[in-house]
Amino acid sequence: MTERDLLRANVLKRIQPSEEGLDYFAGLGKVQHYRKRDKLLVQGEVARFEAFIVSGCVRMYHSDARQHEHNMQFGFEDWRVCDLVSFYSGTPAHHSIEALEETTAILFTHDDIDNVLTRYPEFERYFRLLMQAAYLAGQERMIGALSQSAEQRYLELISRFPLLESRVAQHHIASYIGISPEALSRIKRAMIIRERTSLKS
């Protein structure tokens, strides 16, 4: 399956556009390849594109005043990743986006999105659904940070993304749930001990 085929499948999971509209949209964007640790976006620059991940894995993170990195999102195959505030407002990005693996993405500019919406208004629902999903994910993460323990946040994360630990380093996972790598190691050790105790009883 080609990059464009994967994009078409992503659209068809959400809407049923005309074949003409789908062909037009699938032809937009620029296919870009990144090596591990390449930056798709650097904090402080303006986000000029939205990335549809065809293969690989990326992280979106914020660097604070002390240069501590805080992971905000991971992106895998069939995901879209973007600093939405920067992309839609034209202001400097609050986040960087970095490839954690060899990654291929299709990059969509504002013009790409405006053009498809102008020619094929049926795609308005597609982009609205994407925005809703991004908003809901952000709200759920905020609620989890306020109401869940670190262990609960970790368990929820790996239940949603079972292959995460095989593809993302532990220190990146720890950063995402807001704890140190050492604290995450303690949580995992405690879980193993509880499981062993439960099996013996």
Protein model, in words:
- A hairpin with a 5-residue loop joins β4 and β5.
- About 50% of the residues lie in helices and about 20% in strands.
- It has 9 helices and 8 strands.
- It is α+β, with helices and mostly antiparallel strands and about 200 residues long.
- It has helices at about 5-10, 20-25, 85-90, 110-120, 125-145, 150-160, 165, 170-175, 180-200, and strands spanning about 30-35, 40, 50-55, 60-65, 70-75, 80, 95-100, 105-110.
Features:
alpha+beta; Jelly Rolls; 2 domains; four-stranded antiparallel beta sheet; about 50% helix
The secondary structure category is alpha+beta
Q: Tell me, what's the shape?
A: globular
> What is the topology, as strand order, of the major beta sheet?
1-8-3-6
User: Which class of the largest domain in CATH terms?
Assistant: Mainly Beta
Q: Mean of residue pLDDT?
A: 93
Would you identify the CATH architecture of the largest domain? Answer: Sandwich
Radius of gyration over all CA atoms, rounded: 19 Å
Spatial separation of the terminal alpha carbons: 50 Å
What is the H/E string?
HHEEEEEEHEEHHHHHH
CATH superfamily of the largest domain: Jelly Rolls
**Biggest beta sheet summary:** 4 strands, antiparallel
Number of strands: 8
Low-confidence stretches: none
Number of helices, where a helix is a run of at least 4 consecutive DSSP H or I residues:
9
User: The CATH topology of the largest domain, please?
Assistant: Jelly Rolls
Helix content: 40-55%
